[in-house]
Each structure stands twice: as structure tokens, then as C-alpha cells.
Amino acid sequence: MNAPQKIAGFALGLAVVFAAAFGVGSTVGGAGGTAAGPQPHQAGPTEAQDASAADLPAGLSSTEDGYTLDLVESRASAGTQIPLRFRISDASGAPVTRYVESHEKPLHLIVVRRDMAGFQHVHPTLADSGTWSVPVDLAAGDYRVFADFVPAGGDGLTLGADLHVAGNYHPQPLPPAATAATVDGYTVTLSGAGKADESSPLVLSVSRNGKPVNDLQPYLGAYGHLVALRASDLAYLHVHPMGVPGDGATPAGPEIRFDTTFPSHGDYRLFLDFKHGNVVRTAEFTVSIRPGREPAVTVPTPEPGDGHGH
């Protein structure tokens, strides 16, 4: 289920719970308070929490479908090659040690400061104990750590956790929206951001010194990897490109095509990883997504009756 469908489903679920609550109030009798009929089931706190976690956009929760992302240390010192260790645990609390490879890796780790600076897409090493570890570069500030993985026998998940890095922190403003980004002498242009809650194509075109790059190299089984983060809360979208290298139909540049759906309007930060000359580079964009089709929510209106719930 994609993010917009989850959001719409959660809203509809709230409407159903509201209607059930009205029914409970209607079944209470006069001064004695005797119920006039069977009470409809109401979701308890645990059920409500599970539903809320399941219907959040990716990356906003550290727990989903019984799996939990636990950082071994949630505080770190600033510096280069700082060891970051974490575990994915199952519903029983046991560390998960079996994963299904996705884009040539069992787990993709995204580390980014909350002001969208310092983006890193890395691939940690799994120990027999179930602890993952990887060195990362950290400046002072609050970071969000995203683990993108597929547990053996389960569905793909993205879990998020906060990492606090000590030091003098100066948050940077979100860069303005732009359709071009430069990195190491490469220029990447973006077209087709689209509207919220609508599937839209994104096309990123890579050039160097004014000439199109037609010999991009496969990286993790694709010519490019795109991560989108919503600026307001860092909701996570990991979007894979259309086509596969070597399939006889997908060109090796200059264009890399994606199909994605932004869950809401607002500002997003896009991070494109691409490989050329045996080096992986990251181009960064800010895009402003316009309002699109908003999910309609209808709260049922109780019908007139004799005061008894149905």
C-alpha cells in the first residue's frame, strides 16, 4: 500500500471509530444508566496505537508490523567515521538476522540531519549477533536514521529513529526550490514534480560540461536511486527508477525516470544517487508539491430513531 492509500485508510478508520463511539452513547438508558442493547466493540489503546503506526507514512515510526529499529547509542560525538550501531528486533524482542536482498543489499541505511544537511546513503555490515554497524560522518545536530529493508518472510519496511550529535548546532534553512543541481562538475536537471496524491513521473537528466552523460554505470542494480523526504516531518519515500540496466530498453542516461506519489502538498527534499566514472555522487533538490486530490472523509450522520444504537 502506498503512502496516500495509507493516509486515506487511516482517516476512514477514524470515521468508523467515531461512528462506533456515537452508538455506544446512544445505548445508555435513563437515570439508571442501563444499556438498552449490546455494546459495539471499541478499539482499545493497543489496537489504536497499532493502527496509527501502521498507517503512518514510511520512516515516521521506529516500530511497524512487529519490527523495531533500536540504535545501540542514540547520542554521538561529532566527527568523521563515527561508528553507528543498531539492531532490528522482531515482536518478541529478538534481533532479526535474516533479510531478503533489495537492490543488491540486505539493508539500506539513510542518515540525514533534520535540516536536510549531511545526507548519507550507506550499507552497514551485519554481525552474527544481529547488530548492524557502519561508520558515518556527523556534524552537531539532530539526525534521523532510516533503515530500509525486507525481513525474511515479511514485507518491505522503512523504520526511523533519532540520533543526537553533541556540539554547537546551527540549523540551515531549507534551500529554495530549483530544477537544477550541481555536484562535482555534473549538472542534474529535474522535470515533472506533479501534484500531491497523484502518481507523477520525475525525470532527472545528467550532464557534464554541457554534454549529456550517456554512459551512467549501474549502482545497486539501477542507474539511479532517489530518496524524497517531506520537509515538515521527514516522512520518507524511497523511489526506484523505471527500467533495469541491461534489459535492452533502458538507456544508460542521460535521463533517469521515476514514478512516485507524494503523500501531501508542501516542500520535499530529493536526493539522487548516480554513478559515473566509478564514483557515486548525490544531487540534491528542493521541490514544492502543489495540492492535488485530497482524500475525502465522510463521517456518518446517525439516523433519527428511538434513542437506541444499531
Computed CA radius of gyration, to the nearest angstrom: 23 Å
Termini gap:
32 Å
Helical run tally: 2
Quaternary form: single chain
Strand composition percent: 35-45%
Q: Helical amount among residues, as a percent range?
A: 10-25%
Low-confidence stretches: 1-54, 294-310
How would you briefly describe this protein structure?
By secondary structure, the chain is mostly beta strands. It has 2 helices and 19 strands. A hairpin with a 6-residue loop joins strand 5 (107-113) and strand 6 (120-122).
How is this structure best described in words?
- This protein is mainly beta and 310 residues long.
- Helix content is 11%, strand content 39%.
- The chain contains two helices and 19 strands.
- It has a five-stranded antiparallel β-sheet with strand order 1-2-4-8-7. A five-stranded mixed β-sheet has the order 3-10-9-5-6, with no helix packed on it.
- A hairpin with a 6-residue loop joins strand 5 and strand 6.
- The longest helix has 24 residues.
- It is globular.
